[in-house]
Specification:
This protein is α/β, with parallel strands linked by helices and 194 residues long. Helix content is 37%, strand content 22%. Bound molecules: guanosine-5'-diphosphate and magnesium ion.
Amino acid sequence: MKVSIIGGAIGSGKTTMILDLAKYLTEKGEKVGVIVQETGELDYDEKTLSELGIRTKEVNSVCIPCSLDTDIRSDLLTLKEEFNPDTVFIETEETVLPHKLKIDIERMELSEIELLPALILINSSEFETKADQLIEYTKKQVEGAEIICINMTEKDRTEHVADVKKLVSELNPTAKLLEGPKLREEAFLKMLLV
Ligand SMILES: Nc1nc2c(ncn2[C@@H]2O[C@H](COP(=O)(O)OP(=O)(O)O)[C@@H](O)[C@H]2O)c(=O)[nH]1
Ligand SMILES: [Mg+2]
């Protein structure tokens, strides 16, 4: 069971990306599970899932909302036992550091779990261009992520996108940097899921 952790600010496009990835995978015949660290309302209603062609939980895809203090470990084990998905996406709450959560899950030593690269999404036009303007957890998310997706660049000014990109690559020179709207192309989806 592959586990992909996807983080970033509220409104950065996490749910949308997870639904796109889930759709891509379910069309290939994979079973997909989603765990959401929720603070507020849940975006993954059955209607959304079925509108996107993702069949709901009894069949092809299952979604578990978890409160922040719920044990991710037991959610993963329950999903594995009851549904046995090929891939599970974890949408983290906005202050969580995906790379830290990845280490936490690795330490759980669950059998048959393969962790995919820790990924964060950035809403380009909302993002600062100076390191000292960033909220501390945002800075840490950028510094620790393995894949950084600068999303919604089509809604941002070209110069601002370039400044965001520059800041992000200064903070984290080794992460794979991807830019939307190309994020929806199959080659990109494949890379995220390697
Ligand atoms: N233009 C544009 N809008 C997007 C994109 N991805 C998400 N959105 C919109 O941004 C808003 C927030 O997206 P959502 O996936 O709920 O963000 P989350 O809070 O990080 O889960 C929604 O209205 C989406 O339709 C994108 O790639 N481009
Ligand atoms: Mg969401």
